[in-house]
């Protein structure tokens, strides 16, 4: 069965039936190629997805205030609720057990200039722990500190791209003054952020300084609260619920009114995202299996066709002394040889394509660094080869049983 | 060489069955050249197929060179066909993607003879049928007569005890028919036992003995004076 002679016979048969060889080989190569590319794309989609959602800290609640939609305790509905400095202190006092960090955020867009350079930037009035929420990394100077908050210092920490935009390369921005709106601020630090350009075109100020500039009020837009990560998803939900109850009580909001206080829970989002991500994984697997199945059906069709086409030849061979075994082994080895060679080619070209794509589809199609791990690639190729062999075996077995006289009469 | 006793064969055709051979008694000695004649439907091809182990009888005994051919599985039948029999068909039945010499060498491949030896012997037999210089041609590049000569070479290459020819001239014009029959006569004169199925009287007259079948039984079996071709 494995003698050199029978291999030579098989090679000759393959090379002299080029169209047939090409057709069946192409089916196999295409099947595995599509499988690998689709599977890789699925992985690329997941890559991009992870990047979108995992940049900022994930154990964070963000609190906003809105307008009430129900009258409560003598207050009319449609009352504007505002978060204030003392809310921050109250949360610190009452939720010490859950709390990790807390910072207000007052976002204002402002014209910022240094000497002749100027541009519009987002400024955030925050407390020192805000650095944690954004995962900002200091590259020069220092971040804001508690003194800055207490003294309402006119200090600013600028993003890397703000420095690049406003300051000439040879000038160190630390200690120099920039104008934010019409007020001069001293630059005390420069940070970078892995969340993209927008996150590096930001200027952080003490929130108390921002309030001072706005008629010395005590309003904050948002309060960001991070909880201890070991609380997990369930703990964060409990924390969120208690926090909402506390603030609604404090500000006399109907507990059934959902418009007064808003809380965005990143860990809830993350949980949803992870669910989405696993749905994505199911889809990728499903599509992959479907493609593989289509490939297998394709090979089966081709093999049935090949054996049918060769019925007469097999009859001749049997009349000349081919045993059923040699008929089966000829067809089988032929099909295995073809599926192995073309399956390998399909696999390699699929992997090469994925490697070439890299980040080029990330912007438009959200597919970043698509890949397939080598085990999945090889396993799927082997599965295809095995099923190709089974697909070849069944008609070959049948052909070997046909009486030679019937096969010879086949036209 | 061949002894057949009380051979019956019927084919199932849906619910009814078609009785094709109804008790054939018949024997062939070594070196004979026998024509099996009959109109179409007389059972002559069925008889040849049973002799060639391409088909199986329902009843009766068949001895080939004193070996009883009975209850053969496909593997044994294939081996016997390869060792004892050579086939020539009306439609040549050459493998279309193999050239002449490869076609001729095929029975030797199934006998397990090595490549060089196969090639040598195949060329030898092609020379015998006068086609040595055509050895590299594909069947599609050969005329009908040439194809049949290749088929004859292929039938002979395994040195069979009996050569079975089923209407070997059925697809050929009379001139090439004569060429083919002359080769068959030549081989017979070298001592090979040959059975030729034909419905043409002219072809039958070129054999040494004529067996006539009608409706599944032998109606006539006589030795004749052979018309020898050059």
Largest protein-protein interface: A-B, 27 and 28 residues
Task: Give the second-level CATH assignment, the architecture of chain B.
Answer: 3-Layer(aba) Sandwich
Query: How many discrete structural domains of chain A?
Result: 2
Computed over alpha carbons, the radius of gyration of chain A is 34 Å
Helix share bin of chain A: 55-70%
Number of helices of chain B: 7
Percent range of helical residues of chain B: 25-40%
Which strand order spans the largest sheet of chain B, edge to edge or round the barrel?
A: 6-7-8-3-9-10
Outline of chain A: elongated
- Stated plainly, the CATH topology of chain B is called Rossmann fold
Q: Count the strands of chain A?
A: 12
Please provide a written account of the structure.
- The complex is a heterodimer of chains A (411) and B (230).
- Chain A is an alpha+beta fold.
- Chain A has 2 domains: 188 residues, no CATH class; 206 residues, no CATH class.
- Chain A contains 15 helices and 12 strands.
- A 6-stranded mixed barrel of chain A has the order 3-4-9-6-8-7.
- In chain A, β3 and β4 form a beta hairpin.
- The mean pLDDT of chain A is 85.
- By secondary structure, chain B is an alpha/beta fold.
- Chain B has a single domain, classed as Rossmann fold (3-Layer(aba) Sandwich), CATH 3.40.50.300.
- In chain B, 34% of the residues lie in helices and 29% in strands.
- Chain B is built from 7 helices and 10 strands.
- In chain B, α3 crosses α4, α3 packs parallel to α5 and α4 crosses α5.
- The radius of gyration of chain B is 17 Å and the shape is globular.
- The two termini of chain B are 28 Å apart.
- The mean pLDDT of chain B is 90.
- The chains are: A alpha+beta (411), B alpha/beta (230).
- Chains A and B meet through α1, α11, α12 and α15 of A and α2 and α3 of B.
């Amino acid at each position: 069965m494995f003698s050199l002679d029978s291999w030579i016979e098989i090679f000759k048969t393959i090379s002299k039936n080029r169209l047939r060889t090409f057709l069946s080989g192409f089916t196999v190569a295409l099947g595995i190629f599509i499988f690998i590319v689709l599977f890789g794309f699925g992985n690329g989609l997941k890559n991009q997805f992870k990047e979108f959602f995992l940049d900022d800290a994930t154990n964070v609640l963000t609190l906003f205030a809105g307008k009430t939609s129900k009258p409560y305790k003598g207050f009319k509905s449609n009352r504007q609720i505002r978060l204030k400095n003392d809310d921050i202190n109250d949360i610190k006092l009452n939720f010490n057990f859950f709390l990790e960090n807390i910072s207000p955020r007052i976002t204002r867009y402002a014209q910022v200039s240094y000497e002749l350079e100027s541009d519009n930037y987002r400024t955030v009035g925050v407390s020192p722990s805000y650095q944690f929420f954004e995962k900002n990394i200091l590259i020069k100077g220092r971040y804001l500190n508690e003194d800055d908050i207490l003294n309402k210092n006119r200090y600013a920490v600028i993003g890397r791209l703000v420095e690049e935009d406003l300051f000439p390369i040879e000038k160190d921005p630390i200690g120099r003054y920039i104008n934010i709106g019409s007020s001069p601020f001293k630059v005390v630090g420069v940070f970078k952020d892995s969340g993209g350009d927008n996150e590096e075109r930001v200027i952080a100020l003490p929130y108390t300084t921002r309030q001072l500039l706005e008629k010395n009020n005590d309003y904050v837009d948002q309060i960001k609260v991070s909880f201890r990560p070991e609380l997990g998803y369930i703990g964060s939900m409990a924390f969120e619920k208690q926090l909402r109850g506390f603030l609604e009580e404090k500000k006399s909001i109907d507990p059934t009114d959902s418009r007064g206080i808003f809380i965005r829970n990143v860990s809830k989002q993350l949980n949803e995202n992870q669910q989405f991500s696993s749905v994505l994984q199911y889809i990728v697997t499903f599509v992959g299996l479907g493609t593989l199945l289509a490939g297998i059906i394709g090979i089966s069709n081709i093999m049935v066709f090949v054996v049918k086409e060769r019925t007469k030849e097999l009859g001749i061979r049997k009349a000349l002394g081919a045993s059923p075994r040699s008929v089966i082994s000829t067809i089988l080895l032929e099909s295995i040889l073809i599926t192995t060679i073309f399956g390998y080619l399909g696999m390699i070209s699929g992997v090469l394509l994925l490697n070439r794509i890299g980040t080029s589809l990330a912007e438009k199609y959200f597919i970043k660094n698509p890949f397939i791990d080598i085990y999945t690639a090889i396993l799927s190729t082997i599965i295809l080869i095995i099923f190709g062999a089974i697909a070849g075996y069944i008609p070959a077995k049948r052909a070997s049983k046909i009486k030679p006289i019937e096969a010879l009469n086949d036209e | 060489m061949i002894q057949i006793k009380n051979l019956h064969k019927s084919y199932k055709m849906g619910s009814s069955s078609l009785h094709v051979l109804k008790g054939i008694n018949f024997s062939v000695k070594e070196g004979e050249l026998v024509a099996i004649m009959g109109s179409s439907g007389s059972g002559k091809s069925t008889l040849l197929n049973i002799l060639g182990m391409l088909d199986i009888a329902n009843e009766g005994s068949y001895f080939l060179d004193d070996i009883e051919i009975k209850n053969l599985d496909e593997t044994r039948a294939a081996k016997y066909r390869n060792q004892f029999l050579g086939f020539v068909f009306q439609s040549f039945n050459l493998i279309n993607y193999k050239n002449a010499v490869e076609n001729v060498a095929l029975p030797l491949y199934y006998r397990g003879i090595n490549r060089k030896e196969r090639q040598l012997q195949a060329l030898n037999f092609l020379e015998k049928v006068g086609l040595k210089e055509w050895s590299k041609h594909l069947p599609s590049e050969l005329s009908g007569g040439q194809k049949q000569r290749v088929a004859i070479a292929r039938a002979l290459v395994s040195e069979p005890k009996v050569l079975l020819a089923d209407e070997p001239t059925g697809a050929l014009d009379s001139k090439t028919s004569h060429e083919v029959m002359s080769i068959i006569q030549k081989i017979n004169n070298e001592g090979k036992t040959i059975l030729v199925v034909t419905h043409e009287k002219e072809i039958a007259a070129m054999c040494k003995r004529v067996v006539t079948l009608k409706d599944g039984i032998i109606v006539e079996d006589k030795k004749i004076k052979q018309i020898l071709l050059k």
